[in-house]
């Protein structure tokens, strides 16, 4: 088993390579492709979903199916450029029948998520849905939704999972207004970090 902790050359590419070869949990058996995160490795903003779905499993890319289209639409309405952010999931392999990932699967996959966060080092992390929320923040999803909290020196913004909008159309406007609020927070963080560098 390779170990990244005994050298300092860990990288997003290395994480992705290890994810593709990973068999640390039972989800490896069912997948067609593992789905590492993708996007800018120096993104200010990182998005975290739950797990790949059917389309993601086919294409080996996160958020490229129905939920991905909802996310893309909301991002473009908020003026967030998808290529400037980093997008990943709590678990990198599709659970059978799109069931929720189990606790032990989330635990097995956590090192990849932690390394993505460390390496990309985003100022703001957008947690989409309860699985992403509960894997990184204490407290209640419903209390945090639409809000930004600071934790371990980062900002965490919690919103609905885009797939939940497929089943509940009323959430769509809330999701879009959350993305617009997130864009405002990201713009303010960018201005602050530019001021710090100067
Ligand atoms: N849902 C997720 O949580 N992640 C994806 O990549 C696609 C759908
Ligand atoms: Fe490995 Fe994560 Fe896939 Fe499980 S879900 S096999 S831990 S990459």
Structural features, described:
Helix 4 crosses helix 9. The protein is globular and about 45 Å long. It has a single domain, classed as Uracil-DNA Glycosylase, subunit E (3-Layer(aba) Sandwich). The relative contact order is 0.16. The protein has a six-stranded mixed sheet, sandwiched between helices. By secondary structure, the protein is α/β, with parallel strands linked by helices. 46% of the residues lie in helices and 13% in strands. It has nine helices and six strands. Bound molecules: uracil and iron/sulfur cluster. Iron/sulfur cluster binds next to helix 2 and helix 5.
Described by strand count, sense and barrel closure, the largest sheet is: 6 strands, mixed
Query: What is the name of the CATH architecture?
Result: 3-Layer(aba) Sandwich
User: How many domains would you count in the coordinates?
Assistant: 1
Bound molecule kinds, no repeats: uracil, iron/sulfur cluster
Query: By CATH's scheme, which homologous superfamily applies?
Result: Uracil-DNA glycosylase-like domain
Poorly predicted spans: none
Q: Give the overall shape, derived from the CA principal axes.
A: globular
Q: How large is the count of helical segments?
A: 9
Q: Strand-and-helix sequence, N→C?
A: HHEEHHEHEHHEEHH
**Which structural class best describes the helix and strand composition?**
alpha/beta
CATH topology: Uracil-DNA Glycosylase, subunit E
Total beta-strand segments: 6
Helix content: 40-55%
The overall pLDDT average reads 93
Distance between the termini: 43 Å
Which band does the percent of strand residues land in?
Answer: 5-15%
Work out the radius of gyration: 16 Å
Under CATH at level 1, the class stands as Alpha Beta
């Amino acid at each position: 088993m390779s170990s990244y902790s005994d050298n300092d050359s860990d990288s997003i590419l290395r994480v992705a390579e290890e994810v593709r070869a990973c068999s640390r949990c039972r989800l490896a058996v069912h997948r067609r492709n593992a789905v590492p995160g993708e996007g800018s490795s120096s993104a200010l903003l990182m998005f975290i979903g739950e797990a790949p779905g059917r389309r993601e499993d086919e294409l080996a890319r996160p958020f490229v199916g129905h939920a991905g289209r909802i996310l893309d639409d909301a991002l473009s309405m908020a003026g967030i450029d998808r290529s400037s952010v980093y997008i990943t999931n709590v678990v990198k392999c599709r659970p059978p029948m799109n069931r929720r990932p189990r606790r032990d699967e989330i635990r097995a996959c956590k090192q990849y998520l932690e390394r993505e966060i460390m390496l990309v080092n985003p100022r703001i992390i957008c947690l989409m849905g309860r699985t992403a929320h509960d894997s990184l923040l204490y407290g209640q999803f419903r209390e945090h939704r639409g809000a930004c909290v600071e934790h371990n020196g980062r900002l965490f913004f919690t919103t609905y999972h885009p797939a939940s909008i497929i089943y509940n159309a009323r959430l769509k406007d809330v999701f879009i207004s959350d993305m617009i609020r997130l864009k405002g927070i990201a713009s303010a963080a960018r201005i602050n970090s530019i001021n710090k560098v100067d």
